[in-house]
Amino acid sequence: MQIDQKIHALKLPFYVTSPSGMVLERFVYVYLIYGTEICLIDSGIASSAEEIFDYVRRTDRKVGDISLIVQTHSHPDHIGATRIIKAETGCAVAVHSSEKEWIEDVERQNRERPVPGFHSLVAGPVGVNRVIEDGEIIDLGCGLKLQVIHTPGHSRGSVSLLLSGYNVLFSGDAVPVPGDLPIYEDVAASVTSLKRLKGIPGLRQLLASWDEPRKGTQAYERLDEGLRYLQRVHDSVLGIAENNPSIDEMELCGKVLEDIGIPPIAANQLVARSLSSHLSLREKKEII
Fold this sequence. Notes:
Elements: E1 7-17, E2 23-34, E3 38-41, H1 48-58, E4 66-70, H2 76-79, H3 82-89, E5 92-96, H4 100-104, H5 106-112, H6 118-121, E6 130-132, E7 137-141, E8 144-150, E9 159-163, E10 168-172, H7 187-198, E11 205-208, E12 214-215, H8 217-243, H9 249-259, H10 269-279
Parallel strand pairs: 3-4, 4-5, 5-6, 10-11
Antiparallel strand pairs: 1-2, 2-3, 7-8, 8-9, 9-10, 11-12
């Protein structure tokens, strides 16, 4: 799907089976910026490589034109095909310093943040060529420049990327989607990051990894909805924990999911960890 003259979006579906046996249908967006060469923002899961290659060919470009992959973070559905694409194209890989170890040592990531079907999602480790930090400018040539915005919360090294001059924001998984599974490491950091993104003037497009593209005022509305969703989850966690002082992490997870309209069978350790981050803020009723 062409977003702009220079920007293309590719929606990649995949499935994850939860520990309870529930099959969750998921998707992730990857984005391609077409200049003299191609910059790919995230790579999807391992099987996404051929879909990306096919799309590049259909748009009359060469697979070898992919010269850079910028990772918004290092979770499996974002780095899964990076090893394959780098091997095929010789492209460079850029990621925030806090994410570098998890892409170069995927087994460490699997130990520290296990997700169902990890090895089917990730093709393997890959070397990082460039470490990026907040405020850095990535020059893509042809007048195209990406500004790096460190937006922790979903993960420590999550970044969003602003295409200067176009006012297009690639937000990775920084913006929670109301009604979807709440997944983040630090809810307080997520709130701060969303407020920072809201402060960017004149956004024309919000291009997230796990949400549909949003234009103009819809971009800011989505950021507001993300903040309100975090508050809704916070209210639920604190209310359930207060009424059940001895509740364990997984039971809390199931009850909160049910309360916010998600089947409790979808509960897993990843979501449970996310919800536990709210408990460190139990003295704060309002977090947004």
